[in-house]
Amino acid sequence: MVIEHESEITGAVEAAMAQTPDARLREVMAAFVRHSHAFLREVRPTEDEFEAGMRFLVGIGQATSEVKNEVVLAADVLGISTLVGLLNNPIGCGQTAAALLGPFWRGSAPRYPLGANLVQSPTPGLPLFVSGAVRDIDGRPLAGADVDVWHASPVGLYDNQDPEQADMNLRGLFTTDAEGRFRFRSVRPAGYPVPTDGPVGDLLRAQRRHPYRPAHIHFMITRPGFKTLITQIFADDADHLETDVTFSVIRSIVGHYTLHEDGPAPAPDVEGAFYTLQYDFVLEPGEMRIPIPPIA
Ligand SMILES: [Fe+2]
Question: Taking all residues of the chain, what is their mean pLDDT, rounded to a whole number?
Answer without folding.
Answer: 94
